[in-house]
Design goal:
elongated; two-stranded parallel sheet; Ribosomal protein L11, N-terminal domain; Arc Repressor Mutant, subunit A; single chain; three-stranded antiparallel sheet
Length: 155
Amino acid sequence: MAPEVSVLVEGGKAAAGAALGAALGPLGVNVGQVVTQINEQTKQFAGMKVPVLVKVDAGTRTFTLEVGRPPTAALLLKEAGKEKGSGKAKTDTIGDVSMEAVRKIADAKGEDLQGRTVEERVNQVIGTAVSMGITIDGQDPRAVLSARLSGKAAA
């Protein structure tokens, strides 16, 4: 079984620092090449944390990368133009996103989300908005979710 190193890096800004260098150095791969490829493959996620799995073939000292998708919360924050969620999500809102943005996030996350259908995945993204203090089209996300679940909301 090939050694694997899992890291969480800022999109486009991986560095050969302590976490990556210490983990990859003993495996004999060129850490500089790994960092360059990680940065190339994560640059579209600038400003967000991205999970990356580095698989190393110990025999040939080659590697492959599996770049994950940023967490739903990070995508919502980017859409809302904010850096962090509300510490008091039930009472304080930090921003607003459109339902179109929620759908876009659900599509981007795809199989990473638990829902079987697109609609279930959209509901999951709305649930994340609830916990972060982000409204959807100016409405409380709990109301949006409730309306969707009762069939009263326009899809």
